[in-house]
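COURSE: Structural Biology Practicum
ASSIGNMENT: Worksheet 4, Part C
STUDENT ID: 0417
INSTRUCTIONS: Below are two proteins. For each, the amino acid sequence is given first, followed by its structure token string. Answer the questions at the end about the second protein only.

PROTEIN I
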Amino acid sequence: MKLHKASAAVAAVLTLSLAATACGSGEGSGSDGDKITIGIKFDQPGLGLKTPDGKYTGFDVDVATYVAKELGYEASDIVWKQAPSAERENLIKNGDVKFVVATYSITDKRKQEVDFAGPYLLAHQDLLVRADDSSITKVEDLNTKKLCSVTGSTSAQNVKNKLAPDADLQQLGGYSECLTGLENGAVDALTTDDSILAGFAAQQQHQGKFKLAGLKMSDEHYGIGLKKGDKDLQSKINKALEKMKSDKSWDKFVKANFGPANYKNEPAPEITEAS
């Protein structure tokens, strides 16, 4: 009788262990039951912004919500996770998110670690400077200036390695920190994609303080990052993006998020990331 009870106890422990393992594997894929975890930026107005009241707004948020719905998830099923530039690959590889929609430029280097779907937006690298600053009219002018960008951003390396190698480059944790430095004169320019810069410049508290330099220093194809080798998810996301363009949702999202900044966006790009 005692042996029977002991065996039953062992069986119960094994059952609980297997159940815990199953739950763990679900979380590791960026989904947990009826929920899906998506990585976005929390500090980019017009693209990915967490507002003081806990809501999430921006073009990337709208795109991610649309894609999630096509995958079978309602907006209420989404768990938003902050995805800083330097952490995007890790979040994907560790299974902390199902996918990342966070001004994530598709590059050959990144494609060694993760796969992409899309692209869904074509942006260009530019500079944001103070409205009264007329000393920066071309990229070479940065060689005598203090330039700010975000750790892990391709924009910073593009300037330092190719365009203005003598620029005094400062890499900080977020664009908001760079913007503060630009406003108080600690840095002379902020570089990243024009879509991001336009979002900051259009904020009510910043209107009239900054301006875009209007330099197209690179082409940035924004893609949706996902775990390497997940061709099924890549295909499903690409289909969702195609539908988003064909039913005019893409145009609606662009107008809603970039319209106030008079951002001159490129047309919706062709899908190139496919198996």
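PROTEIN II
(use this one for the questions)
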Amino acid sequence: MQQEVIIVGGGMVGLSLALMLAKANIGVKLLEAIKYPNYDDANLAPYHSSFDARNSALSRRTVQIYQELGLWNALQEHATPILEVHITEQGSFGKARLKAEQEKVESFGQVIENAWLGRVLLTEVRKQPLIELIDGVQVTSLTQDADQAHIEAVRSEEILSLQSKLVIAADGRDSFCRKALGIGADEHDYDQVAIVTTVQTSKPHNHVGFERFSPLGPLALLPLPGEYRRSVVWPVKKGTEGEWLGEENDQHFLDALQETYGDRAGKFQKTGRRFSFPLSQVLAEKQAVGRVVLMGNAAHTIHPVAGQGFNLCMRDAYVLVRSLTEQLSKSEDIGEPSMLLAYEQARLTDQQRVIKFCDTVVRGFSNQNPVLKLIRNTGLLAFDTIPGIKPLVANYAMGLKA
């Protein structure tokens, strides 16, 4: 009998993982708490709790994974390549630039709106005979014994009892599964909220991504489909988000962007509706317990400053599927606890490197001490001038050194 995996959580990571498993000829039951939308209009991608107003900067490694899944042509229609990256700090002299041409790569990655990424993934999942999609279902219990993991869930008036050799918990930062297993988490609140939107500028983006460190917080301005459209992710101090949200604050927001960026992007002409998301770091104390493995934000939620969170999760998923495929090739238990522990150990180096980098950048650039600002900007200049540093950093950013 074919071995089947249960995935709890059908966000972008859960859907991507389900497709990877199906390609490896592994059956999947995918449980998602929120009902998915029906896509009646080919030109629209309505928001879902998992595919919201945010954007994802897909690293080259993530793009390669979607190419292997045969999905990249569909995703490319809604994605824009990053050909240059500019890193600067407002009011300071330091700057660093990366150019794809100089690093001899096609691009550093691709920017896509999460709503479109989710639509493409969900559309493909619905076509897969090996994936059973169960949405609008609330998991109420997760237990396990030596041979099986057991899930109880409720959908409308229906009670579901499911079991599998392996459960993958991809149910988000506040993971029910993580808590049900008694796995603790190390949490750090950055006291920041990310303001997320799209803007239109008078100058074309020319596929340039900006990371601009300002007193308000690290501001990312990334190219989107459409020559003059850009995505904005701007972490600001928690409690101040009200002054940036709502139509009445459109001009105030545009003026703040203009002041922060100067004329690099031309004039900030128009802003879309703005959304806010709290920012914290949540790291599970364990990622594999018995026959359950944590994935995505349930395992590690990190700051979006360098756009690394989703890409890290995709690398986790890819390595896990490779481990499961090896188990199947040997006709061994797909949920063997020792194999899952080996997977966890294999991923720690990459995870810890990315987590430390993102946390260090946030803490380092949040401090406005003049001495630290001098050190930061000297570092940016060194990055831009010392041979050998750029290719190394570029490869890490593209996910090719994992």
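ANSWER KEY EXCERPT:
Q1: The two ends are 34 Å apart (CA to CA).
Q2: Residues 367-390, 398-402 have pLDDT under 50 and may be disordered.
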